[in-house]
Amino acid sequence: MSERRSSVRLAAAVSSIFSVPAIATGAGLAIALAAAPLAQAQETTSQFSGFVIGVDGQPIEGAVVSVQHLPSGTMATSTTGASGQFAVTGLRVGGPFRVSTKAEGMQDVVVEDLYTQIGQRTSVTFVALP
CA within 20 to 30 Å of 49's CA: 10, 16, 41, 67, which one? Predict the structure, then answer.
């Protein structure tokens, strides 16, 4: 008789583990754990992107764009492609920044006092003079 009571208690314990509230709690926990990496993947940096063009509107390939975060002095650079486009990513949020460009045969162009926002791209178009 005691074996029968043990098996009934075991069956009751198993059924309570797999009851609807327990399954719902387990599913909720699984969803929360699955969503955790998404919450951690939120953007915490900013970026500058844009173009370097000549006064004739043509893109300038090979121009070096430098971005300096003035409070910290950190620098990042990018080189324009055939379309004259550049992108400097992974920057600190805020500013001020100094963004400059150098291209062979062109005058240097400098823009100061630029600010960024978290997760946003700040666009800058440079017109380089010969």
Answer: 41
Q: What average pLDDT score do residues 40-64 get?
A: 88
Does one domain contain both 69 and 116?
A: yes
Based on the domain organization, do 56 and 97 belong to the same domain? yes
81-84 contact pairs (CB < 8 A, 24+): 83/51, 83/59, 84/51, 84/52, 84/53, 84/58, 84/59, 84/60
Exposure string for 7-43, b = 16+ CB within 10 A, e = fewer: eeeeeeeeeeeeeeeeeeeeeeeeeeeeeeeeeeeee
> What global pTM score does this model have?
0.66
